[in-house]
Design goal:
It contains twelve helices and no strands. With 264 residues, it is mainly alpha-helical. The longest helix is centred in the C-terminal third of the chain and has 26 residues. The radius of gyration is 18 Å and the shape is globular.
Length: 264
């Protein structure tokens, strides 16, 4: 079954959706959209370093994405507006990554695949990495779910409950770095933030509980991956952007449903 590239592509998209769904909910709740974008952009520098030192791209992307996220945490609140800081770091990391790639000789690099994804070229080894990463993210978020929710709702309440919000932020940062690393092959660094945010945003009007929103986001993400792949096959369009377009359409539909729903 895995010999069919479309089956491998669908499984890869589903794996990324499973990892991104619960994490995307926290990104939406905490208004961390720019944070996710900056972490994703930094991953291209990780790709360049991985190729330069002949090591796993997954490891390089995780390390650099994690370093970016930790840098943002350290520098935030030190005289810089958060949106300004994230904008500087995100675009700087992307630029340094692209420049670093140009210095690598003897390695054939398809930059478009890393920027916009190449889900149709996913191998069996990539599937193992994607699903292992997704399982790790889901396990981490499930383990810290209650503490993450409490610290997201109210930091003072978290401290009163014996929860350290900074520790929960670190867990979220680690999960984000892993998700970025596994999603590079599927949607690329420029579209990772979209797959984090759009399914979660689409699920929000349709859900009554945090757990329900996470499940709905996962289902929307998986549906977007499958339908987007089919649309890319039928209309001969880029697979990664097609998946994001389907997710965006779902968000529009959920927004319409919310507006038509009677108040109260």
């Amino acid at each position: 079954m895995l010999d069919d590239f479309m089956v491998r592509a669908a499984l890869a998209g589903i794996g990324v959706a499973i990892a991104a769904a619960p994490l995307g909910c926290f990104v939406v709740w905490r208004r961390m959209a720019y944070f996710g974008d900056a972490t994703a952009h930094a991953a291209i520098l990780g790709v360049a370093l991985s190729l330069a030192f002949s090591m796993s791209i997954f490891i390089g992307a995780v390390v650099v994405a994690l370093l970016m996220a930790l840098t943002v945490n350290v520098l935030s609140g030190r005289g810089y507006a958060m949106d300004t800081l994230l904008g500087v770091l995100a675009h700087s990391a992307l630029a340094f990554g692209l420049v670093a790639v140009s210095f690598i000789s003897g390695v054939r690099i398809d930059l478009m695949a890393y920027l916009f994804g190449d889900i149709l070229a996913v191998s069996r080894g990539d599937l193992v990495v994607i699903w292992s990463g997704a399982a790790l993210v889901v396990a981490l978020i499930s383990w810290r779910w209650s503490a993450l929710l409490t610290s997201t709702m109210n930091e003072d309440l978290a401290y009163a409950s014996g929860i350290n919000p900074k520790r929960e932020q670190l867990a979220l940062t680690l999960a984000l770095a892993i998700t970025v690393a596994v999603a590079i092959k599927v949607v690329g660094v420029l579209l990772i933030a979209a797959m984090l945010i759009i399914p979660a945003a689409a699920a929000r009007p349709l859900s009554r509980t945090p757990e329900g929103m996470a499940i709905a986001a996962g289902l929307i993400g998986m549906l977007s991956a499958i339908v987007g792949l089919r649309a890319a096959y039928v209309f001969d369009t880029p697979a990664g952007p097609s998946i994001v377009c389907i997710a965006a359409t779902t968000f529009l539909a959920s927004s319409v449903i919310k507006s038509l729903r009677p108040a109260g």
